[in-house]
Predict the structure.
Amino acid sequence: MSRIITLDEFIIRRQKDFAYASGELTGLLRDIGVAAKIVNREVNKAGLVNILGVHGLENASGDEVQKLDMYANQKLIDCLKNSGECCGVASEENEDIIQVPAIASKNAKYVVVFDPLDGSSNIDVNVSVGTIFGIYRRKSDEKGPCTMEDFLQKGTELVAAGYVIYGTSTILVYTTGRGVNGFTLDPSIGEFCLSHTDIKIPDRGQYYSVNQGYYLKFDVEMRRYIDYCSDLNLRLRYIGSMVSDIHRILLQGGIFLYPNTRKYPKGKLRLLYECNPLAFVVEQAGGKAYNNQLGRIMEVQPHELHQRSTIVIGSPGMVDEMKEFVERYSAVPAMPKK
Ligand code: P6P
């Protein structure tokens, strides 16, 4: 039996990989691991403890906030305060950025963006949900408070990103720009243990993941591509939890699409704390992530904290094929100049 490698041990071993290998990012990643364990404990007993049901508030996205969302949000913020390496956070649950008080003798160099409990509408029906996080180096003066500029950075500026999926098992998957690794929580020892080493996404897969219910609301080129997936007898898998849908595609290959619709003309998913962190992970595993304008998601310059984006993400061979469809069907013939 191969030796257990815990998340903490792995992070410390890989510390030399970071351009700023002074252990600051190490502390931050470990804090996220602690928060994930705490959230996991509550997610696993949500049915027993009075934290089910809608919290009655609306978040920045206008979605009703489930109690577990608020719990997960607060635990992540509390844990990120511990290392003294984080000067601010931006969360789907909070309208504005949140300053994290400095710890004496520490000049916090990072900010963290996160969706504390993505897919939370699934909680009440015991379907897997997830946490998504991204870490940026701050741009503002280290001696002052964090600013919006620290958060409105392209995905290409991420120094680390990942997700936790609370499913049949709890798995933390992350990258620091040198490949992707996954760690499964062993409840008997309370540790995330290396379980998915150097994840590589297959070039193609048997799954496509889209909300088929919106089919008639998609642009024609997207409908044609979805028809093509169906003609290929690909299997539709969509559970309304982005982390879960993308985790399957990361491991088995496939494509996830959330195009623009009449209700969400710019797409529904959030650029900063959903699309970019997952795009970083998928790209690091060899995949691709574009928006409907066929631009690389990670190169889009964010202009607001809760900015929405369309997204097509997954196996490189399938994303490239989708790109060809969009180029072919949306290449509207140039109208003759009058
Ligand atoms: P729809 C969950 O609310 C979420 O943000 C993602 O996790 C998921 O992929 C998507 O929205 C589901 O949206 O419109 O298909 O219900």
